Amino acid sequence: MSTEVLRTGRRDGSPPALRGGAPEVKLPRMEPSEELRLVCTRFIESVANGDEEALRVRLSLQPGVERFGSDPDEWWRDGQESMLVWGQQMREIDGGGYPWRLVGDVHAMVEGTVGWTGARVEFDTPTGPTELRLTYVFHLEHGEWKLVQGHHSVPSSNEEHGFLLTTSAEDIVRSLSVAPPDLSASSATDGTVTLVFTDIEDSTKLNAFLGDQRWLDVLRAHNDVIANVTSGAGGTVVKNIGDGFMLAFPSARTGVRCAIELQRQIVGRFNDPGSPVRVRIGAHVGEAVRESDDFFGHAVNYAARIAAVAAGGEIVASSLVHGLLGATGEFAFEAPRSVELKGIADPQLIYPIAWSAAVN
To answer: Structure pTM?
Structure first.
């Protein structure tokens, strides 16, 4: 797989090139692929239908093929063996295929002659539906995408294995219950606070792709943007864990303006075509629940869950933020969409903000 160098310095040891006072960061050019998305979708459906010919067509027989199943003994390092066992398993299952159904869309990316996909499927068991996660790596061979690596896994929590790790914005919220911050300076006179959560979309995958050292370079550049823009906008960085941030502002206008500037600066910093660094941002406003001048509560949880349903490169606002700012004409709100938020009984409306068209 060919990649460009992640440039944070020069070969002669001179200081790195600067853009706006910050190191220029060059990343591998990865792009979404509708072609590979359709190839993988059809393959998943073919396996569900017991189509052994699809296996023969799609699996590579080149050296280096590797496939992992969800069973501890399912690990093959030979394309021919993997294909034979896969076909035999399909014949052994009632109905002649894997009893799974695709949940949502396949996510597909390519760089040159290599592509990779991620998908979730669901199958029924005596104890109810079970999720299975699929990741496939494809290589372009004579104009055809061939599967060279596959991994099927049943997700389990980190806690089951003795690890307490941050996996979402909600983990930031939980961490505040241990040492809740004093945000009196970020509250408006009516006692409300505008909360903004941000993180990098698919950061775990990006870390694995870039490797630890290049990922740390990206993380430092990203975190500098968040901290500097927030400070310049008069906001407060409440909490930062990895690439995730919780920010607070005394007004919805200030918070959304900052969110727009964050997106613009991230695009400016990671400006290669097809750059994989895309930030998700969610904004909400609510009353603070105070204990000893600290706050946490429903507004914090709600803001985190809004950010979790945003797409990379997107800013989404709650109905309350839209209600405060929609009539001002300062921000370009797109049509709302209805989403399910964890812990909230009814569907909620969120409002994407067309930040590239917003006025400074």
So the answer is: 0.55
pLDDT, tens digit, 9 for 90 and up, residues 27-58: 667 889 999 999 999 999 999 999 999 999 99
Could you write out the three-class secondary structure of the chain?
A: CCCCCCCCCCCCCCCCCEECCEECCCCCCCEECHHHHHHHHHHHHHHHCCCHHHHHHHECCCCCCEEECCCCCCEECCHHHHHHHHHHHHHHCCCCCCCEEEEEEEEEEEECCEEEEEEEEEEEECCEEEEEEEEEEEEEECCEEEEEEEEEECCCCHHHHCCCCCCCHHHHHHHHCCCCCCCHHHCCCCCEEEEEEEEECCHHHHHHHHCHHHHHHHHHHHHHHHHHHHHHCCCEEEEEECCEEEEEECCHHHHHHHHHHHHHHHHHHCCCCCCCCCEEEEEEEEECEEECCEEECHHHHHHHHHHHCCCCCCEEEEHHHHHHHHHHCCCCECCCEEECCCCCCCCEEEEEECHHHCCC
Question: Structural domains in the chain?
Answer: 33-153 (3.10.450.50), 166-357 (3.30.70.1230)
164-221 pLDDT, tens per residue? Answer: 444 556 556 655 555 555 555 556 556 678 999 999 988 888 887 888 888 888 999 9
